[in-house]
């Protein structure tokens, strides 16, 4: 995709850990960025965005969340492309707070993109939508051709994976049905430096373990990616006209102790 002067790109969840790096990179490349956040006046969560180079002239923050179709449309209108990265995070009521927002939020974003006549959309999914398939042949790598089994996710109550799998599948079906150029990218666990002042999930996850707050579980493979590398990949998928369909992003796979809180 050849970039035009002052091309506008909307990025959902702009204040987040991963998304902030994408915003930084887009600004450095000369894009005008429309970023959706829950509260543009929240300096603790979003103040770092305003300090990015070129932010004063090329960054516009819009108040919107995943359930706010009108707010999303206002942010997306006038943009050539959209990077949909905003996502529900782990919570105390995951069956409600991780499934419905992922699915309905993606629907709202894509419907707004269709109405605004956006040319290309990159939807960020997760390796959680890839790796939970007990029927996948053991001798085949779990690449972008593998999908997590939704019934398995339900039976094991892995709600985050369920929401991501359904949302991504619907996004690709939406692309075919509406002839909208949509690419999906399945992100592995991202680590690296933070631009924001608040601790993100993956960093707090690691910090909690280092402080002795999590019980180790051995023998699991964990796929990792540097957050800066992922930002590069995200924008590469947007800019390359030949990018299509589904991708999986991981820099390393390690067999190590994996930790999470029940």
From TrEMBL:
Instruction: Cite a single GO BP annotation.
Output: flavonoid biosynthetic process
- State the reactions this protein catalyses: (2S)-flavan-4-ol + NADP(+) = (2S)-flavanone + NADPH + H(+); a (2R,3S,4S)-leucoanthocyanidin + NADP(+) = a (2R,3R)-dihydroflavonol + NADPH + H(+)
Q: What keywords would UniProt list here?
A: Flavonoid biosynthesis, NADP, Oxidoreductase
Q: Report whether Chloroplast shows up as a keyword of the record.
A: no
Q: Write out the GO MF terms.
A: dihydroflavanol 4-reductase activity; flavanone 4-reductase activity
Q: Which domain of life is it from?
A: Eukaryota
InterPro entries reported for this sequence: Epimerase_deHydtase, NAD(P)-bd_dom_sf, NAD(P)_dehydrat-like
What is the role of this chain?
Bifunctional enzyme involved in flavonoid metabolism.
What the record says about family reads: Belongs to the NAD(P)-dependent epimerase/dehydratase family. Dihydroflavonol-4-reductase subfamily.
Q: What is this protein called?
A: Dihydroflavonol 4-reductase
